[in-house]
């Protein structure tokens, strides 16, 4: 029976061994792209997991974008406030590198596509398990790149929370990735040693020949005449990545480079003046009305003792402190350092009778929903640069930047720098 199935001829089309004919397809080219991904993907994974930790999800359900993570949250730690640009760096690298690796990923998938049509699809139990791990690998990587890019491009089309999908997807993918690396590392290094990169980069079309037949069947059995050199293939992918780098990185680096970030949805002109820097959600877009933040606005501070109720004038009359900090969003963009001034969170905690507060619940006037409230940790409260900011760059906060008062904390993900704050509840 097994023998008879083994001899079943493949259906016509891509399942036939002669169908795939590119003469440059082979283990060497696959391994070049594979090596780039072997370096890049662990960086994506680590920076992604750091981003999740930066939300301080263990501070409670308000912060936790993935409440059912269970053991997958084993690595969480208290997100630091030093260096103040930490999240700007980790998340800028995460998003920029993800975008830059797209051409490499597509080239790698192209280079192994005959394997997708392997005949028979499943030959033995071991072969079936290997194919299943490849399905998780390829499905996982496509899922992670697609959800990540849709999110940074602000297409919220997800059936559920982006964070949950991207987080669980990352774990499925990385498991398959580790299995794949273990199974293929030897083959990859042998393939890389089989040809010299320097020679390939000098080889022209006339001298482009297929690699020797390989057990994976990547090298075509009936190669077509070459239309492109390996140098050309590596060059096209490299040029694609460099181009993506140039039109993406500016959103995280800033300065004049910001205007080169053509792919960044937040590349719109933020206007000029003290409040002329990137706005994520405007007040109108999240339902904050001028009436919420007009003369009737009060800050409530709860702690150990009677509640304080303060007007903006009273807050401005208190001792003001300054901090020079950026806003860095999970979407990868960030602002250059801005000059904020306002009240230290630590001072407000002390006024509320909790000089050693371990956490603070921050609530905005915005109708309850995503980002309308957050919990900050003791180390964030007690950093002297952590402010309830009233002013920025020498002017009052604009309505869209969080007037009358907003949180700004060093190394905090943008989303946790709540705008339009009206209540702080300090806890031990
Ligand atoms: N109340 C409230 N605060 C908020 C948000 C929000 O939607 N509502 N967006 C957050 C996000 S996702 C970011 S990146 C920063 C952006 O601040 P900015 O618009 O002043 O640049 O504000 C944060 N604070
Ligand atoms: Mo954000």
UniProtKB/TrEMBL annotation:
CDD domains: SO_family_Moco. Residues 295-427 form the Oxidoreductase molybdopterin-binding domain. InterPro entries: OxRdtase_Mopterin-bd_dom, OxRdtase_Mopterin-bd_sf. It comes from the Bacteria. The keyword Membrane applies. Signal peptide: none annotated. The chain crosses the membrane at residues 28-55, 93-113, 134-156, 168-186, 233-257. Gene3D superfamilies: Oxidoreductase, molybdopterin-binding domain (3.90.420.10). Keywords: Membrane, Transmembrane, Transmembrane helix. Pfam families: Oxidored_molyb. This is Molybdopterin-dependent oxidoreductase. It comes from Streptomyces humicola.
